[in-house]
């Protein structure tokens, strides 16, 4: 108990490690956790990101980190009030920016993937008008039964002549993939990537992706949603050269053999009733090309535990980071929380995966901390990024494609109100980290 007291005191102590005060990219913006990359560094050093407003507009923004100049453009007015609809971004070889997002599943207002291209490098106002398309075929719909479109995750592989791969939860309520060889002007027919062994159109594996931009796209995923899967486990695979592979480089399936089942991949964490179900937050690769993963376990829905796993070539080194509190949505009085597994969130620094940033509960407020490990996550040095806040700080992210010359910037949501993913009043903050 004495050690725990000292540790908690350390977490609440102020350190002058981060000089710049947080600033607002917007006072009206939210994002979910499964459309990525939601923020990217561009070749000119700017950050491009986007969000959903509380009135349902989809907005893209550019941040010049050196001057703090912010430019914004509304991509789609009043799409729907739902934070699942935040845009994901990809910089193309000619420095154009491709962005994609969706309605949440689909509704009377619309269904499909929405896409824009920014034609003038550095000019956020030059995004094109929205193009809506539905990645499906009659044959795929007949086999997988359900048509729904949520999330978009676009990546480019230079070793495949700059072919673009875009993933989302589409046909069958399952992870799908489409490809483009003309910078997103046209797309291949979709393939279902992962499915339950017995087709269940209510089952939905959740996936986080990371690409090296060259030859590999890494995936971590679950059996489904932790609300629906009492033993939700965490799995890993990667795509390369037309096939999907386990962590030990054994083959799961060729693209032509898709889909595969979660249990066909590498198991990072096998859920048990004692240790709890899980959900996922981030994946990057270290300098050796090994996957580094951040995820959450739930021994109970009110006890959220952050974990960090690194594959060393033979096994997963899987270690507890910290207990983070419970869910962050503000549950109405006398109501049951609808999203009990909404943790504050973790992000891994892609240039230095021994560093993470995470949101956890301190004195009944969600604050951001930095964690640093030198032993694959066995022990952690923890220092504050935010403290003494009056509003919750959640869902931190380090923008992808960071270069050594780029300033280290952290983005996160700050909640004036977050009752549900359709009922929120939130800001997006940013901070340069020393």
TrEMBL record:
Residues spanning the signal sequence: 1-19
Keyword field contains Signal: yes
Keywords: Signal
Pfam families: BNR_4 (PF15892)
Official protein name in the record: BNR repeat-containing family member
Species this protein is from: Dyadobacter linearis
């Amino acid at each position: 108990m004495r050690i725990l007291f000292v540790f908690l005191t350390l977490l609440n102590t102020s350190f002058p490690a981060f000089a710049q005060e947080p600033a607002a990219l917007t006072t009206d913006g939210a994002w979910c956790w499964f459309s990525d990359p939601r923020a990217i560094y561009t070749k000119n050093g700017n950050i491009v990101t986007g969000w959903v407003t509380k009135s349902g507009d989809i907005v893209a923004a550019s941040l010049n980190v050196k001057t703090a100049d912010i430019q914004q453009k509304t991509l789609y007015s009043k799409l729907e009030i739902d934070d699942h609809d935040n845009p994901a971004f990809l910089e193309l070889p000619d420095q154009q920016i491709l962005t994609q997002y969706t309605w949440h599943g689909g509704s009377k207002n619309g269904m499909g993937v929405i896409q824009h291209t920014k034609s003038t490098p550095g000019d956020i106002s030059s995004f094109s008008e929205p193009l809506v398309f539905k990645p499906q075929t009659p044959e795929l719909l007949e086999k997988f039964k359900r048509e729904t479109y949520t999330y978009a995750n676009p990546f480019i592989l230079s070793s495949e002549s700059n072919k673009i791969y875009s993933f989302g939860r589409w046909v069958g309520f399952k992870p799908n993939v489409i490809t483009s060889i003309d910078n997103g002007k046209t797309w291949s027919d979709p393939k279902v990537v992962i499915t339950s062994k017995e087709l269940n159109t209510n089952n939905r594996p959740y996936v986080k992706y990371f690409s090296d931009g060259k030859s590999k796209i890494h995936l971590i995923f679950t059996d489904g949603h932790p609300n629906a899967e009492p033993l939700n486990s965490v799995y890993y695979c990667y795509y390369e050269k037309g096939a999907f592979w386990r962590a030990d480089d054994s083959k799961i399936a060729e693209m032509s053999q898709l889909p595969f089942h979660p249990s066909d991949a590498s198991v990072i964490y096998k859920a048990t009733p004692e240790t709890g179900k899980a959900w996922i937050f981030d994946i990057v690769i270290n300098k050796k090309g090994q996957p580094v993963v951040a995820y959450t376990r739930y021994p109970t829905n009110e006890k959220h535990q952050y974990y960090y796993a690194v594959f060393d070539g033979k096994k997963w080194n899987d270690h507890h980071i910290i207990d983070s509190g419970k869910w962050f949505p503000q549950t109405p009085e006398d109501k049951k929380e609808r999203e009990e597994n909404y943790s504050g969130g973790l992000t891994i620094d892609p240039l230095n995966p021994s560093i993470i940033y995470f949101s956890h509960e301190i004195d009944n407020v969600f604050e951001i901390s930095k964690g640093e490990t030198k032993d694959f996550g066995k022990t952690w040095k923890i220092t504050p990024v935010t403290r003494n806040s009056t509003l919750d700080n959640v869902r931190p992210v380090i923008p992808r494609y960071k270069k050594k010359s780029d300033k280290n910037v952290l983005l996160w949501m700050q909640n004036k109100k977050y009752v549900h993913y359709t009922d929120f009043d939130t800001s997006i903050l940013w901070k340069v980290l020393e």
